[in-house]
Amino acid sequence: MKFGISTFVTDEGIAPGALARAIEERGFDSLFIAEHTHIPLSRKSPWPGGAELPRKYYRSLDPFVTLTAAAAATERLLLGTGVALVVERDPIITAKEVASLDLVSGGRMIFGIGVGWNREEMENHGTDPRTRGKLMNERIEAMIEIWTNDEAEFHGHYVDFDPIAAWPKPMQKPYPPIYVGGGRQAFDRIAEFGDAWLPNRMSPGKLEPMLGKLREVAGRDVPVTVYGASSELEDVEAYARLDVERVLLGLPTLPEAETLDHLDSLARVVAATR
């Protein structure tokens, strides 16, 4: 089983380059970071994690800028969005950002995607929350068209463009792996174009009964990377028994010195499982 780090990068915590170097130096294989363009102050949408939304949600940096800084500071670290909120993103611009990051990183990009939970945030981007799943599917399909064709063209209900030229193309072929976030509702999407499932903060006990259904819907074995995974040793060992491909241990958003201490603690957890 592989081990990576999942976190929010903000203007109040460790800088992206220093964070990425520290993660790579401690032997973790990947860094996945969250995205929120903004947080509507109405706070009508309940946060799935509890009552009060943590401060880091309000202050998160742009993921592609952050991961580019991380790429420049590292040599091997895989760079993932966890997750990019595709329903809030123009697909042509996002296709270019993904391809550009994959190119400048030497083919280390992982495109983690999700529909998100904050309905007011989506609405501020012109997205109807009721149709966000269908919108995301079309946007991903359009991006794949852009990545894989010199004369890309797409005509759907939500995305529509005549032939375009758009470079660079991704270094990874045919395009960077797509990790699909979400629960059971994401399985059809994984079956269509997902390379892996990226469940969020899912315990081994909740994960286990869903794996069989995932294989059934997808018609194949699907690699699983758990975002925000528990760092309790018994949970990490349970993930391994379920043949989880990777766990992304959750890292709090802290200043540099405290972050490094926390990374050392997580590295000790990993060492104890080997």
Structural class: alpha/beta
Mean pLDDT: 97
Q: Please give the largest β-sheet.
A: 9 strands, parallel
Unreliable spans? none
Please provide the count of β strands: 11
Q: What Rg do the Cα atoms give?
A: 18 Å
Helix content: 25-40%
Give a quick rundown of the structure.
The chain is of the alpha/beta class and 274 residues long.
List the helices and strands and how they pair.
Elements: E1 2-7, H1 16-25, E2 30-33, H2 63-72, E3 78-81, E4 84-85, H3 91-104, E5 109-114, H4 119-124, H5 132-148, E6 152-155, E7 160-164, E8 178-181, H6 187-193, E9 196-198, H7 204-218, E10 225-229, H8 233-241, E11 246-250, H9 256-272
Parallel strand pairs: 1-2, 1-11, 2-3, 3-5, 4-5, 5-8, 8-9, 10-11
Antiparallel strand pairs: 6-7
Helix pairs in contact: 1-2, 1-9, 2-3, 3-5, 6-7
Structure characterization notes:
This protein is of the alpha/beta class and 274 residues long. It contains nine helices and eleven strands. The chain has helices spanning 16-25, 63-72, 91-104, 119-124, 132-148, 187-193, 204-218, 233-241, 256-272; strands at 2-7, 30-33, 78-81, 84-85, 109-114, 152-155, 160-164, 178-181, 196-198, 225-229, 246-250. Helix 6 (187-193) links the parallel strand 8 (178-181) and strand 9. The longest helix is centred in the middle third of the chain and has 17 residues, at 132-148. It is globular.
